[in-house]
Amino acid sequence: LMCSPGSGQPAGIQNKGIYIESSSPITCHFLYSLYAATNGTGLIPAENLSKLYYVMPLSGGVGEARRIRPDTSNIVATEDNTTVTIKGLIATNTITIHLNRLNVYPLALVLGEITEISSDKKIAVINSMNCYKYIGGACNVQIMQIQGSENFDNKYIIPTTRYSNLSSQGVIDTNNAAGDSIQILSITDNNIIKSNGNVIATLNKYQIFEVINFLNSSVIESTNPIFIYQYKKGIKSNNLGDPSVNAIYSINKIKNIYNLALPPMPVSGTFDAPEYYALVAIKTSGLSSFRINGNLLNFSQLANFGQVGKSEYSSGYIRLNG
Question: N or C terminus of the chain: which is more exposed, having fewer CB within 10 Å?
């Protein structure tokens, strides 16, 4: 992984890569620590990196006036003499760069452009989306490690975040700022997209479909492989926290054991006590055996789960602290 460049336009090749290894399995989370803009991403193990990525900058958001540099895809080489080809799929411009191990190339993204990043050796790609927001929502830096094309699939289950649908909780949200949004990328033509069995879009190659107010957990299916971002808008009031973004893994990638690392508490300054939550999608039949740190879910925790459409899955949230 790497650190993003400083203010201004992205610089050229930099020696900012970091390689982490251990004698036993570990989980890693990269935290970008900046006042009023802290964010992070889970990290993909080196053996699961790819040679082919499709990158789409988040669309639909509105950057605030203090946005000072473009969104970037930070490309990290894992081996010496790595050749990387970067191709705009709409403007069809192509550049080639050569990287050595742990070199980082920050690529400026163009809003609305889909970018193909391919290489002759495995690389990591980490997106930095700067001061991204929706009207009425909060502004924040978004950090997300991108999945390779091997992870594109045609069936996903997406649980909504805790405050995605305030109206269902009796709270007025006139700006729809508390909701989630999802963005779906297709890399083939005539790709029919369904949410809980209902057709919501037909996409052609390199088209993006956005659900701006994604209010209910859904099973998303497609005739051909797709890739999905889920964006939690956040809001400056109502205690809903800052925005965040995640790349969604398909149902075929679901595991039955996860290790989560919570960020450390602030050591100085005046901060509200953070609340940490895990969003969970699980087969309904498995809820009775679901454990957190060895303990079965109690009645109040189970009450936070509900069936996803008419599927065999349920989704909900678990508070991880307090």
Answer: C
